[in-house]
Design goal:
The structure is a homodimer.
Chain A lengths: L2 E7 L6 H12 L4 E9 L1 H9 L10 E11 L2 H22 L8 H7 L5 E4 L3 H13 L3 E4 L6 H13 L4 E2 L5 E4 L2 E4 L6 E9 L1 H13 L4 E6 L12 H12 L5 E6 L4 H14 L3 E5 L8 E2 L2 E3 L3 H11 L21 E6 L2 H15 L3 E2 L7 E2 L10 E4 L3 H4 L10 H11 L4 E9 L8 H16 L2 E7 L8 H10 L3 E3 L2 H12 L13 H4 L3 E5 L2 H9 L3 E5 L9 H10 L7
Helix pairs in contact in A: 1-3, 5-6, 7-10, 8-9, 9-11, 11-16, 13-14, 14-15
Chain lengths: 565, 565
C-alpha cells in the first residue's frame, strides 16, 4: 500500500545543495516513489502538499529539517529514512577530502590578496558574516536572500564610508574583470559596463550584447532593493562612479526593477554628469522620453543591449551637460505656464525625471500636486487650460490675459530663475501671440533677471506666421524650442543640478586587478570561480552553535564584535 | 486716488469672446489702469485678487457676471462702468449684421448636408445641445469643458448605438478631410491618421509630421476622458475603426493621456487586429516594449511623429497577427513558470498590455497579485525565485525540482493551454537543464494537449552548450525564443484574443465627404471654418430662459424631449 512517511530533525543546518542531493539520493532508492527534503517553513509544508507529498498535523518550525518519503510500502519508507544518515555522511566525506578553512579569518590568512567575499549562506546568518568581511576590507557579493532591509542599509552605509561595495543581498549576478560571480553567462569582454538591481536583467542583457558581437567590461549587481527609498541606491551609485572612471568602459547600462522616483531622479542626475552614454532600463518605469542628453531610456532587456551596442564609438557625440550654475543661487526655480495640457504633462515628466521635486496642477505626471494652483511652489509647471482657469473665460491659446498676469506674478518671486511657456499657433488660436508676449518677456528679463524659454508649436502654413512668431520671440531674448525634451534639457542645464557625494570612492583597482575571492556558502559557486581561473578559497562554514537559535543568541551576546561566526 | 470699483450683473450670459472684448475695450478707456470681466466663480474671484484686482466681500455666484475696474479715480471708474452697455451693444450690432439662425433646428434647415456640429457653449448647456445634434443624425465635436462624466457617458453610448461620433467633451482639436476643427494647425495632407485623447498632443504630432515632410489623412479628437474606465474609449474605438477602414490612412497614431489599464489593453487588442502599423503614445504609460507585432510604443509627441513617418510605406512589413483560436475553447489560459524575476516581470508586462487580466506573485507589473502563489488563477506568471519558494531550497536556476512539480500541476488544470518557461544558462546554473525539462515537456504535450514555449538565455560559450539545449528543447516540441517580446507575441497569437464590437460602424463617408458644419458657440471657430473653405452656419445661440437657472429648470421639465434650446 502506498504510504507517505516523514521525519523531522530539529534545528539542524545543511546547505541547500546537500538537501537537494539527499532528496535525489532518496528518490533513487528501490521502492521510493518520491521524496522531499526541505526546511519546515509553512510555505514548504504547503508546497509538499500541493506536489503530492502531504503530511498531516505538522507544525511549521523553519529551523527544522523535514524529510518526506512516498513509497510503495511502509517498510520501504522506513528503510529509506534509515538511510538518511549514511547518505549525508557519504556527502560529508567527499567534501572533506581537501583542507578547508572553517572561518573567514582563516580564509583571509590563506588568501590575503582576496578582494571579494561571496556569501550564499542562509539569510539569517548572512548579515553578520558580511559585516565581518567588510571589516576585513573586502568587497561583498551577497547572494543570500531573506536578509532584512535594516541589515542591508547598515551594511551598505558601512561599505559606502569605507569605499567598499556591498552587492546584494539577493544579488545573483556579477562579472568582474571577466570572472562571473553567482549566475553569469560567459560573454566576450568589451566596452559596455553594466550596473544592475536585477540579476537576470544583467544576464539577459550581457547575453544579448554577446549575441550582437560586442562585449562587457564589468557587470556589477546591486541587489533588487538597492534603488528603494530606504537604501537610496548606495551600491548603484558607487558602481556607476566606478564605471564612469573605468577607462575600458565606453557605454554604461543601468538596469533596475522599478525604482523609487526620487532615488531614480538623483541617480539620473549623477548618470547625466558622468558624460558617458548611458542606457537606462528602469523596468516598469514610464520613461519621459527615449533620449535626453547622454541618457537613453530602453524598455526591454533586448532593447537595452541593442542600444548599448549602437552607442559604442559614439561617446564623443554624447552631449556632456554643462553646469551653468555656480554654487547656491537666490534664483533657482523654474515656473512653467502652459496653454497645452499635454505639452505641460510631457515637460513636467521630463523635469521630474531629472530634477526630482516638481509641483503641478496636472495629474499623472509623477510631480506633486499643488495645494493651490494660484500659488506656485519650488519648481512649478501649470496647465492654464485646466477647468479652474477657464470657467467663463477663453482658453489661454486664444486669450493671453491670464497667462501674462501670472508671468508678472512669477517674475516678482525672487526665487524664480526661469519661465517656460508654450506658444501654440494654428486655426482657432490667438492671431498673433508674440505681439502680446514678447514685450512682456523683454520687460521681465530686464527688470527681474528672469530668463524665458518657449516651446513653439506651429507650421509654416499657420495663419500666425511661424517665422515671424519665432523671430519676434527671439528678439525679446527668448530661447525657442520646438519639442519638449529640448526645452527640458535647456531648463536643467540653466538651473544646474547639484550632485554631491562626500563618500570616498571605491578603488578602481577592485575592477582592474585579477579576481581573488573567498566563497562562503554554495560550493557550486566555488567550482565555477575555480573553473574560470580565479584564485578562490572555500570556507567550510557552519552556523554558530550548530544552528541552535537560543545558543546562537547567547554566543552573540558574549561576543558583541560580531566575529563569532 | 487709485480705486477699484466693480459691478455685478446677476444671471446674465455672454460668450467668452464677448467678455474678453469688453475687458479690452474697458482697459483702453482713458484713466482706466486695469479691468477684469469674468463670471463670478470662486476661482475667478481668487484670480482677480492675485492679479491686482481685489474686491472685498463678494459672494461667489458662478452665474453672475462681474466687471471690475481699476482706475486713477473713483469718477473715472464709475464712468467706465457706465460704458459697459454701450460697449456690449456695439459688439452686438456687429454680430447682427448677417442673418443667423437662433436654434440648431433652424441651422439644420439652412444647411441640411451638415455632417458635423461644433459645440463650444458653456459646459452646463452643452450636453443638452449635443444630444439634440445627435438626434438630428450629426456627429458632434464637443469643445466645451465642465461637462459631467455622466453626460459624457450617456452621449457616447447614444453615439455608439447610432454610428455617430461624440468627440469630446473638452475636445480641442480635429482635422477632418483637411479641415481643422477648434485648435488645429495647417498641415500637409498625407498617409498618417491620428486618434487623440489629447488636443495639444494632436497639434504637436501633426505639426512635427508636417515638419518632417509628411502629412495627415485625418486627426480625430476624443476628449481627454475617453480612455477612462467609465467611458471605455467608446470614441477612440470608433475612430480607430474608421481609420483602419480608411484607404488613405496607412499608419495610425494613437495618443492619449494616461489610460485605464484595462481600457488600454482592450484598445491595444483592437489596434493589434487592424493590422495597420500603429504608433501608441499613452502619455505616462510604462509601455512594456518599443514594438510588438504592428504596435509601436512611443514616449514623446516628437517621437510619435518620427516613428509614424518612418513607418509610411512599410505597412506590408507589419506582422498582421494571426488568430489561431476558433471560438470559445476549454483550454484558454497560460501559466508562466520562471526562474528569472526580471524575465518574469518583463513577460508579464507584455502580457498585461495585450491580454489585460494576468495574475502574478510579482509586484510592479500591472498584473493582479495572486492570493496564494501556490494556486494559479486565469493567466498566471510566477517567479519561482521569490523568497517564499527558496527558503532552505536551491534557486530554480540550479534545481528544477520545484518547477517540474508545478509544471505537472498546471498541466493537470483542464483550463491551461500554454506553459511558458525560461531556461537560463551560464556559470552557477544547472549543468544541463534541458536533460531534465525536455522529457517532462514531451509528456505534458502528449498527455494534456498543453503547448510549451521557452525563453532561452545563454551564449555559445556557456558551459551547458547553447545549441545542445536549444535542439533538445525543440526536439521535445517546444517553441524556443531568445527575447521576452517574441515569447509574448507567440503566446498572444496562440491564445487568440477576442475583440468583438456589436455596434454599427461609423460611416466612412463622414471622413471622406467634404465638411459641412454647424457651429454653436465661439465665433472664432466659425471664422476659422469659413476661411478653410468649409460650408458652415453659425447659430446665434442663447441659453434657454436667458441663463436663468430656475426658469431653465421649469422649461426643461415642460419639454422633456430635450429640444428646448
Amino acid at each position: 500500500m502506498i504510504t507517505i512517511q516523514h521525519e523531522r530533525r530539529p534545528g539542524v543546518y545543511y546547505d541547500s545543495v546537500v538537501l537537494m542531493q539527499l532528496q535525489r539520493a532518496l528518490v533513487e532508492l528501490d521502492g521510493v516513489m518520491d521524496a522531499g527534503v526541505v526546511m519546515a517553513t509553512q510555505a514548504n509544508l504547503d508546497l509538499l502538499e500541493d506536489t503530492g507529498l502531504p503530511i498531516k498535523d505538522v507544525e511549521a518550525r523553519p529551523e527544522d529539517l523535514l524529510i518526506v518519503i512516498k513509497a510503495k510500502s511502509k517498510s520501504t519508507a522506513d528503510e529509506a529514512l534509515k538511510q538518511v544518515d549514511a547518505l549525508l555522511t557519504r556527502r560529508r566525506s567527499a567534501a572533506a577530502s581537501t583542507y578547508r578553512p572553517r572561518s573567514l579569518d582563516a580564509a583571509v590568512d590563506q588568501l590575503p590578496q582576496a578582494n571579494w567575499v561571496l556569501i550564499s549562506i542562509p539569510g539569517r546568518y548572512a548579515a553578520s558574516v558580511s559585516r565581518h568581511a567588510l571589516e576585513a576590507g573586502k568587497h561583498v557579493f551577497l547572494y543570500s536572500d531573506n536578509v532584512s532591509l535594516e541589515d542591508e542599509i547598515a551594511l551598505k552605509h558601512y561599505g559606502r564610508e569605507h569605499g567598499l561595495l556591498v552587492m546584494g543581498p539577493d544579488c545573483g549576478t556579477a562579472i568582474i574583470n571577466g570572472v562571473g560571480f553567482g549566475f553569469a553567462n560567459r560573454v566576450r569582454r568589451g566596452a559596455i559596463g553594466l550596473v544592475g538591481a536585477s540579476g537576470t536583467g544583467l544576464q539577459a542583457i550581457t547575453t544579448a550584447i554577446h549575441h550582437l558581437g560586442k562585449g562587457i567590461s564589468h557587470a556589477l549587481g546591486t541587489g533588487g532593493r538597492d534603488l528603494k527609498r530606504e537604501v537610496g541606491a548606495i551600491c548603484a551609485r558607487q558602481a556607476l562612479d566606478l564605471l564612469a572612471h573605468d577607462p575600458t568602459t565606453e557605454v554604461i547600462v543601468l538596469v533596475s526593477k522599478p525604482p523609487d522616483p526620487d532615488v531614480a531622479a538623483s541617480l539620473l542626475a549623477a548618470a547625466r554628469q558622468t558624460g558617458k552614454p548611458m542606457v537606462i532600463n528602469f523596468i516598469g518605469y514610464a520613461a519621459p522620453t527615449r533620449q535626453i542628453d547622454n541618457l537613453y531610456f530602453a524598455q526591454t532587456l533586448q532593447e537595452s543591449a541593442e542600444r548599448a551596442v549602437a552607442l559604442i564609438g559614439r561617446a564623443g557625440n554624447a552631449t556632456t551637460p554643462t553646469h551653468q550654475s555656480s554654487g547656491p543661487q537666490e534664483r533657482k526655480y523654474l515656473r512653467g505656464l502652459f496653454s497645452g495640457g499635454t505639452l505641460a504633462i510631457e515637460t513636467t515628466r521630463g523635469l521630474v525625471a531629472l530634477l526630482g521635486n516638481v509641483h503641478t496642477n496636472l495629474s499623472g505626471t509623477g510631480a506633486s500636486l499643488l495645494d493651490d494652483p494660484l500659488v506656485s511652489q519650488g519648481h512649478t509647471v501649470l496647465d492654464l487650460g485646466e477647468d479652474v482657469f477657464t470657467v467663463g473665460r477663453l482658453h489661454p491659446m486664444i486669450d493671453n490675459d491670464l497667462r501674462m498676469r501670472r508671468m508678472k506674478q512669477e517674475a516678482d518671486d525672487p526665487q524664480v530663475a526661469l519661465l517656460l511657456l508654450d506658444v501654440v499657433l494654428g486655426e482657432g488660436a490667438h492671431p498673433d501671440p508674440a505681439s502680446e508676449l514678447a514685450p512682456l518677456i523683454s520687460e521681465v528679463r530686464e527688470q527681474h533677471q528672469v530668463e524665458v524659454a518657449v516651446l513653439l508649436i506651429g507650421t509654416d502654413e499657420d495663419p500666425q506666421g511661424l517665422d515671424r512668431q519665432h523671430e519676434s520671440l527671439e528678439a525679446a531674448g527668448v530661447a525657442v524650442f520646438t519639442d519638449t525634451m529640448s526645452l527640458v534639457s535647456h531648463a536643467v542645464a540653466c538651473l544646474g543640478v547639484e550632485v554631491s557625494d562626500e563618500a570616498p570612492p571605491v578603488n578602481l583597482e577592485s575592477l582592474t586587478s585579477s579576481v581573488a575571492a573567498i566563497n562562503i556558502g554554495l560550493e557550486t559557486f566555488y567550482d565555477s570561480l575555480s573553473e574560470q581561473g580565479a584564485e578562490v578559497v572555500q570556507v567550510d562554514w557552519r552556523p554558530p552553535a550548530g544552528g541552535d537559535e537560543r545558543l546562537m543568541d547567547i554566543l552573540s551576546k558574549m561576543n558583541s564584535s560580531g566575529k563569532n561566526e
